[in-house]
# Entry
Amino acid sequence: MRSDRLGETLLPKRIALPVFASDALSSVAYAPDEIMLMLGLAGGAFAMTHSWQVTLAVILVMVVVVASYRQNVHAYPSGGGDYEIANVNLGPRAGLTVASALLVDYVLTVAVSVSSGIQNAGTVLPFVRGNEVALAVGVIALITALNLRGVRESGTAFAVPTYLFMVAILGMGAYGFVQHFTGTLSPSESADLTLLPEAGTDAVTGLAAAFLLLRAFSSGCAALTGVEAISNGVPAFRKPKSRNAATTLLLMGVLSVTMLASIVTLSQWTGVKIADDPATQLVRDGRPVGEDYVQHTAIGQLSEAVFADFDLGVVFVSVVTGLILFLAANTAFNGFPVLGSILARDGYLPRQLHTRGDRLAFSNGILILAAAAMFLVVVFRANVNALLQLYIVGVFVSFTTSQTGMVRHWTRHLRLERDEAARRRMQRSRVVNGLGAVMCALVLLVVLITKFQAGARYAILAMAVLFALMLGIRKHYERVSQELAIDWESEKPLLPSHVHAIVCISKVHKPTMRALSYARASRPSVLEAVTVDVDPEETHALVKEWERRQIPVTLKVLASPYRSITRPILDYVRSIRTGNPRDLVTVYLPEYVLGRWWEQVLHNHSALRLKARLLFTSGVMVVSVPWQLASSEGAERDWFDEPPIPGSVRGGSG
Amino acid sequence: MRSDRLGETLLPKRIALPVFASDALSSVAYAPDEIMLMLGLAGGAFAMTHSWQVTLAVILVMVVVVASYRQNVHAYPSGGGDYEIANVNLGPRAGLTVASALLVDYVLTVAVSVSSGIQNAGTVLPFVRGNEVALAVGVIALITALNLRGVRESGTAFAVPTYLFMVAILGMGAYGFVQHFTGTLSPSESADLTLLPEAGTDAVTGLAAAFLLLRAFSSGCAALTGVEAISNGVPAFRKPKSRNAATTLLLMGVLSVTMLASIVTLSQWTGVKIADDPATQLVRDGRPVGEDYVQHTAIGQLSEAVFADFDLGVVFVSVVTGLILFLAANTAFNGFPVLGSILARDGYLPRQLHTRGDRLAFSNGILILAAAAMFLVVVFRANVNALLQLYIVGVFVSFTTSQTGMVRHWTRHLRLERDEAARRRMQRSRVVNGLGAVMCALVLLVVLITKFQAGARYAILAMAVLFALMLGIRKHYERVSQELAIDWESEKPLLPSHVHAIVCISKVHKPTMRALSYARASRPSVLEAVTVDVDPEETHALVKEWERRQIPVTLKVLASPYRSITRPILDYVRSIRTGNPRDLVTVYLPEYVLGRWWEQVLHNHSALRLKARLLFTSGVMVVSVPWQLASSEGAERDWFDEPPIPGSVRGGSG
# Structure
């Protein structure tokens, strides 16, 4: 997209909501399941008693986090992501911490969303069972391919499935409520099953019960993933940007809470049971249901209960749930390269990732994300519950840091602000963000305590590795930058006095003749053609040909006692440099330009090797003189995947 | 090794024999087993009756082949390998056929020799059983590592194990003969077993018996592998080269035949039984011995019988047999890259493989050979018998072609030769080679008939693929060569009229200042500094700095609506070319030279991408101006693995 046209694509709220909220809204597809599953470890009765309490705690956190991010949106209308906020207010180390957490979370967003989408599809597609890993890998591959092809979803493409998902879940909720109060709500397929505590678990009381409640709570906080997306996207909103974004954020929070609450309530009414290990925990008529039992997701079971005699409703819910989850995964494919580009700008990642217009850099990011997500899906067998153990820690690391940063932000601004009304607003915002920071820190603590062993440690390890890696890259760039800085006081640029040009020759043919004529056109002080005597017969033939054609440049034959091509030229160049240290040596290398990848294998090796070594000697320039072979015609376009360049002229030189 | 010192390393016969004959001699370690195993498919009695007959047939072929190759040695004192002989006398297609066969055979030499060495080691090392594949892969990896490290075995290192192997086998033979005639020879460990025909095989008579004899014969011809090695090595002999080589070849033949005959005779006397499937075919007291039975090689069983009360003798035989087999594998690691280099010289393989002095090319050859051999070992579970089904066809393809080529050679020379004595010698040689060609063709036919289904077809397929690949490469080179040839009548070299120089600038620092001063030193007709406006802030800062430092070159800012770096420069260069087609455009790119591999990831990407694209435009030269960072100091040496260059001077320019 052209920079100067970016402005034309500002989003109205009705499009911005689905664009930025698909990730957050989609998490209600797995958060209720997680709460019930965790509580179910202590048996069905425990789950029934406590699932609403835990859900309320999650909703409380959601309210606080949404309120806090509304402050972010007002403070950073230019779209300060968590990384920027931490960076600006708490310093680069905090920023880098958030960046590491976000990078890990993008990978987990893809892995969790796709796995959950596959799981939801299983409600109506029986063949999913047993093929989850292969299907999840396939879906990731498909999303990757779409993103590599450059199919950027428009707002509308995003809007449709997200609104359909809202319709599906809220519609199902409303219809279910009506059925409940008219007494026509069917029980769910797992209503008549007994949910036993996990094998080896006795009656859970006291501390153990408290710990289990905390575990369920921290799993339920999965519902908060993606909430930060709107605060990154403020610049894409129509004016007044901040107010519109804040409204959208509020709307998203209300929708999320409503959907979550409906699902949990309906699950209680229809007796949905979700077990960590269904085969042994679920009992029908005193007997475990065994390996053949297929446990559907809460949304799946609810749709079957609510739309008991309306199969199309079940299919609709299942399809749109899968769709919004895949869309959520897709948002990570957009966010990951963007964050990579910002980190590259700040010197934390290889600089070439920064160039926005460069499709290659984005492709690399997309491929890295896809590979990492596939790795997780394979290692964790596309098990949503197992993946969630790694997921939430990163989310709350970045929430906590960013909210703490916001407190600092307000404190800094309060020092300068004199207007009382503004000061009051800022103080109120600081209180909200402070509350958010404390709340998120508490949740982070709970997550760390309850999930460290279960998997969070791997996520923390990955963050630590990324942190160290990015810090190392930044330090390297700083070191290089210092080394390259010019001390204008002491260093006077010296122009080399002579230019000694050498043209490397192996045969008399068009490429070497072009190199010679280009070298002559550059009018160096000294011009020599040089060849290495690897095979005496060939050298002899070359010298004869040279004389016969009366080529007006001296041909120097370098001996090669070890039959190497590179070494004699290197030695010769260095001997010129040693004799005349202020001379500049220019080495002309004819290079073939070919159109097919396998042709590359067959050519240019000596030239490239020689160039790589010459560059280590100072006072030497290496000039590539290309000869375009017929096969190169049109290949540039194919390789670099760009439209043809208008007015480009081929041939006609040398 | 220096070309002019190669002469100092000529080998006396006593060293040349082990150097060139280890491969041929080592094949007696598996050839007798193969004969007995194949005959044993029809039961122990059949094997006992016919093994000597088959061995005699193999010895006959050996005598004829040795006699034929003695003619080669006299005709090509410069060391015409089978490839060269076929190439010169029968044309390039025949040469390429032989080359494909030889390449496949080198791989099989490694796989078969190492697998057999492991099998022989199993006689004294019980843990080998069940770990054959892993051990064989490990040994190949070890040989590969030694060859990559450049540890070229000296003649003596080769001589010791080969002579020890001769001592071991001939000593065992002689001692066994004495024991036999004094009646003290112990029976072998399998003497009291009954060898049943393979399951499903009835009494073998008539055609089936003849077919089995032919199969056993073609397997026994494995004894001939490696016979051609001496004819490749003639130049390494002391003078008179040809006569010494011929004598050594004869000696090798005598030794091979003696060892083969001793092993087969002793096996009969001690009742050695070798079964294709020992678990079911071998019966003790009416019961199959089952999976626990470990079948040792013939040499292993013989050593245990002959040295019944001298354990050290058994260990000695086993160790030196393993050793010579690994040495035989090592010869392939020397021969494969050499053949690759010859084929590259003739344009059948990528040209960079030709440069002899280049360790990298040899490393690639070594790695390809190792990977292919490991692949075979893994696929065929290090089973010598299974691997041999693929092996012999290639050997006889090259024997037959080379002997036919020799017949042509003599016919051609007879046309010119007038001296009667010389003509008689030539005629005699032609008869011998003709006999060799016919004999080898017959054996090849037998091998094809009896082994095609068993595995030879895979070898033939591999040869066909290599043949097609190499032909394709050659055709590509020829096409390029034609395209590059100069028509001196019609083409007059035109000197470009102007040189328009562009220096690409991203920052004001040492590398760009060096690029600028080098460009100025080259005195182009027009000189411009060019920067791409990707980030307006950075561009503004750059322009300010440029003015402040009063850099005496105009800085041109190129707009980049799509935030790409490459495209605006490409477009600009092309616009210059279009405006002035006879102008030459020189693009100067500052390039960082760094010492660590991971630093490469962090730099130079824009420059390399830009260069790759600029080369597609004609009339453009790309100049790399290197800036050596501190980390590059000494790195050239580490990377390119060479001794430091005397008199090399660092720094001090620009």
